Amino acid sequence: MEKITLNLEGLGCANCAAKIESRAKNISGIDNVVLDFSRSKLTFENKDSNVDLTIDEIKNIVKSLEPDVVVSLRSEGKPEQKNITNAAMHSHQTMARGIGHNQKNLIRLIISLVLFTVGILGKNMPYVEFVALAMAYILSGHKVLYKSFRNILRGDIFDENFLMSIATFGAIAIGEYPEAVAVMIFYEIGEYFQDLAVNRSKHAISSLLDIRPDEASVLRGNFWMNVSPEEVQIDEIIMVKPGERVPLDGIIVEGGSNLDTSALTGESIPEYFALGDAVLSGSVVVNGIIKLKVTSVYAESTVARILALVENATSNKAPTENFITKFARYYTPIVVFFAIGLVVIPSFIFGFDTFDTWLYRGLIFLVISCPCALVVSVPLGFFSGIGNASKNGILIKGSNYLEALSHVDTIVFDKTGTLTEGAFEVYQTHLPDEQVDNNTLIKLATLAEYHSNHPVAKSIIQFSNHQVNLDDIIALEEVSGKGVIVKSKMGLIIAGNKSLMHDQSIIIPEILSPYTHIYIALDGKYIGAFDIRDKVKKDAHETIKRLKTLGYRVLMLTGDRKEAAHAVATSLDIDTVYSELLPEDKYEKVISLIHDGANVAFVGDGINDAPVLASANIGISMGAIGSDAAIEASDVVLMTDEPSKIPQAIQISKITKKIVTQNIVFALGTKLLIMALGTVGLSSMWMAIFADVGVTLIAVLNSTRVLRYKPKPL
């Protein structure tokens, strides 16, 4: 199915956004309709409909609810440079129009407040009071009245504009002129500040994800040309200057610089990259000019993959979000009918001479019945959490996964490439007696392994500080899967595993350690051995310690040998470890844990981890060295190889869930309290206005706290 994305420029009403999404879902021939209010975009999958007709139908829905919103198709093709320039100019023009619109609204509201003040002060002069209040009401509320009239004609009765209109008409009918004007003015003031807060929040979230360069400086012929990153091909040379963002993945072929990779990895300290180093797109050059040979086209680059993950994140809504969306559909009608009942029933019971009293109390319910505080703040809170996580090098594919992460109680780790580097290192040496010193053992091993490309051989060379004289090597034979036999000026050196030693009839001792052993013999006599282990990541121990301190159950599943697996588990203080597992065995272990009631997060990196990553409650993959299959199957992607990102991701998920819950409790609690007080005559329309727009504003500002939250480092 084809996925279509529409921009909804100027969408500022969250309640209207929910209605647009609801109505668009009823269009035949399309599926998976999602409106992301935080980013003002609507996506849907086209099954068997005419795309142009479907877009026209969506435009009509948007126009009926929000006439000022401009709907446009988001291009997924390769934009030419002039299109990028035009887009930038259009963005500036839109921003300028927005600023001008806000200024006009502010002036209108200030004049309304002045007229309202004049009306209040002129209460002893009926003519002045009436004219001033009437002008204030019309000036502040004409848009609300127009929208409510238009919506009535379209059958959309339960709309906040209609509710405000009815509430103020009712206040006028019972002679509460100042309160009628006050409700309209302060409703509009609240909407004004709410729009400001929401737009600033949207901008703050978008700026976290603003890692896409608009241009790439590419060498073609003998000239440097500025083109769109999409136009650059593999193996072309690009140049990036200080302060610029790297547009495509590549390898440095000239120059060197410190690079700020914070937008990708969350690492705040710039790192120096030199000739031959691989550089990820989205990094910022701090100093020096670098030239790169491009290694991937833009669509497959790091920055494109990150943006695609974040763009699609809002398609997966959290259960709390879905609940609020459904709740909002029923909340307003229920409150409205309750308001009608509050006016009619007591008037019959206590007599119609009390009608004005009960009408006033019913009007309070109408003012308070709009669910904007919930509809705005909940999705904004979740997307702020996703934005914060991406800033810290953690890509979460949806608010449902962000919320699910806060419920995890069991974390299962793969070993190789997850808790370990996936690279070998020498752990220690073994000497049979004092006749051979450690220095001689290392020198012989270095001479034997010098020409080998095997990872174990490279770990020994890295461990050694000996210089090799190539003239000392006379002949070399590599025995596949076993080791090497080297004829040298020091004698015949044999370096390899137990099998090679047995083939050469060399007697070796039994070494009781869980690591891989490389034995060294000289002229047919065993002289020592090396313990080779998979290098444990530097932050792995602190990560496990932090998780266990926080109360999480930690396990390790690996396909590695039992001895090696238990050695790593012991060094990291992991109590439960399962070794020598096939991919299907890992899958069955995780499924078993879930069936036993555990909320499981599985952390892995390899292609063989893809099934278990997909089956866990939350799958977390290593993004830097992880395979594409693992990243695709996982729900959370760590842009570095650091397991320490996991406690950070959990912290972000918990603070997001906490703030979203605060907003729900605060909004509903305040509204219910004002309703209860209004029922017994202890609240006024002023309080109802606060419970509507005031609570919304506070909830939006509270949601933005997620953006400023900094997870505690290990």
From TrEMBL:
It catalyses: Cd(2+)(in) + ATP + H2O = Cd(2+)(out) + ADP + phosphate + H(+). CDD domains: HMA (cd00371). It comes from the Bacteria. SUPFAM superfamilies: Calcium ATPase, transduction domain A, Calcium ATPase, transmembrane domain M, HAD-like, HMA, heavy metal-associated domain. Residues 2-70 form the HMA domain. Its EC number is 7.2.2.21. InterPro entries: ATPase_P-typ_cyto_dom_N, ATPase_P-typ_P_site, ATPase_P-typ_TM_dom_sf, ATPase_P-typ_transduc_dom_A_sf, ATPase_P-type_domA, Cation_Transport_ATPase_IB, HAD-like_sf, HAD_sf. Keywords: ATP-binding, Cadmium, Cell membrane, Membrane, Metal-binding, Nucleotide-binding, Transmembrane, Transmembrane helix. It is an enzyme of class 7 (translocase). It is a multi-pass membrane protein. It is found in: Cell membrane; Membrane. PANTHER family: CADMIUM/ZINC-TRANSPORTING ATPASE HMA2-RELATED (PTHR48085), CADMIUM_ZINC-TRANSPORTING ATPASE HMA4-RELATED (PTHR48085:SF5). Belongs to the cation transport ATPase (P-type) (TC 3.A.3) family. Type IB subfamily. This is Cd(2+)-exporting ATPase.
